[in-house]
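can u do me a favor
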């Protein structure tokens, strides 16, 4: 009878996985052919931005409903998830408190309270709230510290998972990436809707192949599964090292986001902002582990989703008359396409592009004699300053010249690096649309064009699919995400929790493309072509940081051209309230929401790393009640050390947040997912196969990433450019690591024969 029950579930899996594949890879592969416009929406764009996400939600919800109903029919018993007394009431009070606080600060601003005070008060209140939850949830109990006592109801665990998942990359950078990259980005810079599809489609794999089966094991950490399933020390150790590697890469990006937002919100230095935000992380995860982190993340979700939805809803209402941005922004897509064509045909834009090419030529001449050019520029500026020093009326000009002198590179190496960087920037901006890809067009190049255009199209589509694959598979393997489903009371609650998680996450991911479109329309319709001296005040404020916003009158016509405007990815979300003309308190809310997103993810990641170091590497899963206190204390100590190391790495201002996060997905997918899924579903998976598979997957992924990283190649003297395999960018290295790990696991397991305990009951 058990065999019959086991086989009955596979048709459902096959149908749902086929639907998942068709709604993601199938739609994307033919996206360029789905160019019809229905109700104002380009069909291919709608499916990638919204339709597929709705299909993913349906898959996860249907699977949870069917399997939970089947458990009841089979008489399976499971603990009921009962919310603590008064939990719903307390959560409603918290929500009303957030609204009341915003209203109160808005009235205080109207009454004349200075903006720094408003920012300081709101930031302090949020950090105090997180600290209070951390203190209240403090524990040294092993079950409470690692898995919150396995008592978290599905809906609240889904809310906490959503906050844990929607990191600084999702909140701050996703909309900006969509603004800059459109549907798919360029061939050598894949992105765009790949992030939306990858980060939501991965939950289908998580629900169907991983989460309920791991929850069935009653484990504390992901490496516990490898130790329980295969025995021995090395499966646990390698899984722990893989968890630490991908989680550390991820947490550096989150702490970088913490420093960025805190410094913007308070005016403190970036490094001080990191330390201030880090204190908020540690007070929760250090004191209470998963118990405190869960309830902190649930409260942080409310803050971050309000911070995201309110500005985008207001912009949508301003432009379309409909505040439901996810459904309304389609009508702006056709307008943006028309304005893109106007910009590309504009003589003034062409003039600016030609001037960028002139600057490139000038810089290339400078690079022929860097030392001589640098000395000549210093000498010329000093002579001009000396000539004007004695004229009181020229002091403003003297100040400007002194700033130019101070801004010159300090030495030959710095000059060469700066001028090379400027050449690359000018070359990129000298393309049509200032180097941006047309927003609704799927993939660069032209499948019907010449050989070069066809090659560019194939490369762009392949990189998009590769990145989406890595994000999806990585989602199913990220340890800090999987651990969240260990906190539910039962397997059925774990399935339901995955469904709630995706619903809560989709609230943001369905609106992120909308925000990108609405802001792009605002820029093209209301900024481009306007007099430079009549631009809105918010532009002057944000242009103090050129990495976020920069504009200048390149051709001297007194008007702002699209090519004269540089917008950083992080600006789109952070400045959205000011772009929409909302009061300053909404800007503070957005910054606090971004901080909540970064802190919530950092909480989960640091807890995962600390537990992997102490529970899995030092004590190797030892759960003796007498030694439980020692295990938890070591976990807390490891968490503190890792937090300081991550803060130091973030203070070095590494590569963009999105790149760091995407890299961690490749590492998690290649190092953990093939061995984990085979261990769940294939009885023949062996200990040697898992060890070989994990090492192979991680090795291939790391090699491809590092061998194509310019800094590593320069350090090893290998030259500036690596050799790409089939044109795939290194951010998607997992597309090679995952199949390599899968094949290694299967081949080695086949050679060694069955070893380890049986896989779990497949009815889970």
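np, heres the sequence
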């Amino acid at each position: 009878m058990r065999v019959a029950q086991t086989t009955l579930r596979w048709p459902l899996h096959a149908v749902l996985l086929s639907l998942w594949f068709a709604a993601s890879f199938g739609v994307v592969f033919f996206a360029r052919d789905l160019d019809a416009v229905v109700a104002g929406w380009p069909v291919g764009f709608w499916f990638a931005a919204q339709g597929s996400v709705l299909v993913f939600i349906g898959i996860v919800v249907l699977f949870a409903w069917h399997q939970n109903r089947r458990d009841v029919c089979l008489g399976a018993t499971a603990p009921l998830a009962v919310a603590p007394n008064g939990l719903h009431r307390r959560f409603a009070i918290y929500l009303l408190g957030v609204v009341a606080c915003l209203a109160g600060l808005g009235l205080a601003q109207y009454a004349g309270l200075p903006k720094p005070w408003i920012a300081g008060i709101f930031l302090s209140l949020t950090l105090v709230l997180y600290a209070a939850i951390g203190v209240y949830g403090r524990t040294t109990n092993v079950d409470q510290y690692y898995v919150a006592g396995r008592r978290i109801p599905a809906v609240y665990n889904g809310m906490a998972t959503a906050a844990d998942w929607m990191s600084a990359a999702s909140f701050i950078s996703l909309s900006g990436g969509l603004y800059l990259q459109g549907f798919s980005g360029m061939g050598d810079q894949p992105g765009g809707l790949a992030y939306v599809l990858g980060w939501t489609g991965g939950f289908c794999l998580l629900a169907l192949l991983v989460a309920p089966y791991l929850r069935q094991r009653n484990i504390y950490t992901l490496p516990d599964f490898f130790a329980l399933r295969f025995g021995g020390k090395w499966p646990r150790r390698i899984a722990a090292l893989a968890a630490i590697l991908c989680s550390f890469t991820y947490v550096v990006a989150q702490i970088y986001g913490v420093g960025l937002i805190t410094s913007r919100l308070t005016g403190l230095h970036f490094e001080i902002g990191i330390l201030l935000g880090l204190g908020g992380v540690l007070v929760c995860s250090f004191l209470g582990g998963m118990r405190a982190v869960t309830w902190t993340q649930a409260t942080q979700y409310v803050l971050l989703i309000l911070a995201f939805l309110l500005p985008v809803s207001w912009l949508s209402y301003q432009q379309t008359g409909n505040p439901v941005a996810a459904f309304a922004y389609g009508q702006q897509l056709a307008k943006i396409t028309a304005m893109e064509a106007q910009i590309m045909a504009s003589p003034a834009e062409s003039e600016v592009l030609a001037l960028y090419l002139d600057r490139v030529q000038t810089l290339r001449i400078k690079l022929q004699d860097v030392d001589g050019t640098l000395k000549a520029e210093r000498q010329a500026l000093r002579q001009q300053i000396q000539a004007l020093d004695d004229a009181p009326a020229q002091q403003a000009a003297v100040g400007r010249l002194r700033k130019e002198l101070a801004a010159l590179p300090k030495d030959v190496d710095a000059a060469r690096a700066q001028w090379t960087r400027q050449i690359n920037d000018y070359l990129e901006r000298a393309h049509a649309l200032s180097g941006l890809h047309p927003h609704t067009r799927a993939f660069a190049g032209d499948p019907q064009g010449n050989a070069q255009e066809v090659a560019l199209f194939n490369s762009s589509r392949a990189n998009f699919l590769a990145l989406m694959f890595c994000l999806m598979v990585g989602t199913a393997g990220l340890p800090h995400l999987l651990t969240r489903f260990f906190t539910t009371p039962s397997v059925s609650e774990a399935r339901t929790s995955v469904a709630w998680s995706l619903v809560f996450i989709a609230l943001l991911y369905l609106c992120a493309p909308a925000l990108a479109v609405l802001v792009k329309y605002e820029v093209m319709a209301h900024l481009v072509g306007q007099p430079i001296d009549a631009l809105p005040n918010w532009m002057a404020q944000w242009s103090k940081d050129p990495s976020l916003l920069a504009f200048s009158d390149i051709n001297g016509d007194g008007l702002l051209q699209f090519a004269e405007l540089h917008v950083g990815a992080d600006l789109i979300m952070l400045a959205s309230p000011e772009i929409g003309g909302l009061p300053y308190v909404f800007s503070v809310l957005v910054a606090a929401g971004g901080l909540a997103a970064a802190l919530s993810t950092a909480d989960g990641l640091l807890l995962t790393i600390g537990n992997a170091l102490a529970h899995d590497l030092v004590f190797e899963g030892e759960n003796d009640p007498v030694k439980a206190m020692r295990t938890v204390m070591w976990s807390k100590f490891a968490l503190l050390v890792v937090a300081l190391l991550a803060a130091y790495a973030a203070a070095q201002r590494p590569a963009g947040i999105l790149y760091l996060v995407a890299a961690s997905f490749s590492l998690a997918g290649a190092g953990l997912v093939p061995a984990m899924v085979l261990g769940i579903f294939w009885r023949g998976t062996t200990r040697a196969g898992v060890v070989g598979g994990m090492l192979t997957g991680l090795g291939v992924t790391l090699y491809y990433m590092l061998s194509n990283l310019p800094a590593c190649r320069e350090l090893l003297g290998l030259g500036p450019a690596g050799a790409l395999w089939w044109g795939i960018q290194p951010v998607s290295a997992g597309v090679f690591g995952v199949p390599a790990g899968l094949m290694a696991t299967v081949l080695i397991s086949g050679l060694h024969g069955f070893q380890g305990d049986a896989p779990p009951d497949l009815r889970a």
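The chain is about 75% helix and 0% strand. hope that helps!!
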